[in-house]
Amino acid sequence: MSEEILELQIGGMHCSACPVRIERVVSKLAGVLKVQVNITTEKALVHIQPGKIDLPQIVHAIENIGFTATRVMKNRSDVYEKSIEDVVLKRNFMLAVILTIPLAWANLIHFEWASNLYIPSILLHPFSQLALAIPIQFIIGFPFYERAWKAIKSGYANMDVLIVLSTSAAFFYSHYLTFTSIETIQKGEPMVLYYETSAFIITFILLGRLLEARTKSRTTKALKDLYYLQTETAFIEINGEEQKARVDSLTYGDIIVVKPGDKLPIDGKVIQGSSTIDESLLTGESLPTEKNIGHAVYAGTMNIGGVLKIQVTKQESETVLSQIIRIVEDAQLSKPPIQRIADRVVQVFVPVVIVIAAVTFVLSYLMLQPGEFSAALEKVIAVLIIACPCALGLATPTSIMVGSGRAAQLGILFKEGAILELLGKYKTIIVDKTGTLTKGKPTVTDLYVKDFSRQEFLAMVGAIEKTSNHPVAQAIIHEAESIKHPIHEADHVQSIPGHGLTGMVNHKEVMIVNRTYVQESSMHLPFEAREVITTLENEEKTVMIVFIESLFAGIIAVTDALKPSAKEVMKQMKQMDVHISMLTGDNIHVANQVAKEVGIKHVQAEVTPQEKSAIIQDIQQNGTGVIMIGDGMNDAPALAVADIGIALGTGSDITIESGDVTIMKGDLQKVIQAMTISQQTMRNIKQNLGWSFLYNVVMIPFAMFGLLAPWIAAAAMALSSVSVVLNSLRLHWTTL
Questions:
Q1: pTM of the model
Q2: Mean pLDDT over residues 56-79, rounded?
Q3: Is residue 643 flagged as an active site residue?
Q4: Which is the catalytic residue, given 160, 254, 330, 432?
């Protein structure tokens, strides 16, 4: 079944019930497979079956319930910049403040401690207060009425309904008193009115949303940093001349020129020049990387050294940077399982609050303060306002945004919010060996030379190995190139299947073979050479023996060295009380040696990628969640079947599609960082949810019994949302 994903920018969401409502309506449309709405990013991801539904139908459904929807065509940083809605919000708040101050000043007459303050008589006149309250209630407050009406018309109640009920009750009751107490007004006697209550509520809610918008914008910092790595133009070389061109017009094979201090505009391969590249913002790698001819370079990195000519290998939409941005956005849009708790509560919260408010009025008017309509009304208003579930809706998405953003800054990519929740929970970890615990790139560790200088020996051996692509051969070539001695040319090179190579160098026969071939051919080995070979093989190293003109000339030992952090990471994982096993395709002796060095007790060796998958599935049948850590290449099947696959990029390769979590530069220590971020993000979400639930549970009874003035309730409700966002922002400074 084919699937298309539409990314929409949603406008008009102001409470936790809004995304739940949009998801419920859109998910019922024929052809919609899945929908996720995030109130923090104000975006939606809609998975559809092409041909069964189209974009206009989805937009129409969303607009019918009071929201706006437009398609996001590509990654754009201006999505998170100041919008017209933000400008209107700020303007309305400032107007509300200007109109509310006189009402607040007049309200001081009811407080003994303010009896000596000067209060202009005109501010005490009910008609003056009415004139000030009308624009707040019906012009500045009009969006509340509009959204509340659309919500009720579509069959549900949101926070706007609570705001409209509470402020309208205060305003219209005051309006009733104003026009039914003309005699009192004419006598100049003070009246108890509630115009300032409705004004305070609207003003404080606008203040809360303004603060919330500003603090929420900080949760998108990681995405902004990634967006700012993108460039719109590049210098392309055509017929030897440099011309400015748009990055989105570049195609495979184009040659671009990048000067010192410039950001690389696109992925490519160096074809001329050498330089150092700062890849820290892209991969979390702190030290600049040397780049020479043939090296891969990536969009968004900074050229520090010399001028580079680069051949384009990816289009703009295919670059590693573009993929990273998509993954981070998807992770921030997705919902972890814990969010379902908040969603279920939100669906019934507003109707329940309305019922509680009605019960409060009846109890107050009939029992607590019989006949005191004003007192009952104040309690109802306070209950309606204090119970608004804004903080509850922000509790999870803000933490997910900040946590996944913090991880991205460290070169750790979470593909879904659910992974952030689960990674810190699972206690069974399976690790690959090659490229995971080891560097994945064999290196020469020991050299024993007889009758030749080291330089001459390596120059001759390197000449033979240059004809081979075998990993051991590549390790020997790398060692030969490091001696700064010209490598000779070899002739008549032939492979000895399963054993090595032979050829002619400087008219001398050079043979590089393993011990098995030496024994089968009865070739002579000096006693000291046999001892060296035995020692090296006991260390689980690959040993190659060199003969020149049929005489023993030396020994080369090659091994895939452990990553520097491997031992410490395995130790830290054990301290996290997890069960660690190794699965590898290498032979059992090498596997056991590596496992012994890093402290892993459970090892299965000589298994194929398909067998790794089967082993993981056997473990999962017992209900055990499995984390698989591999290099993202031959481990792809195992990473796919594991509950969480962690893919490590190796060397200069940046592999970001293989796992649920991708470690950009293959640093094993970052697996610990990923697990720590997961645990701290979940702790942060629980704190937010706990605070939100506790806030409502504790404050509603206070409001019911008249211990909370309506304007205080409005301020507390507004600040509760801000406090949740501020708590989430603490993840920016997570200690790892």
A1: 0.69
A2: 76
A3: no
A4: 432
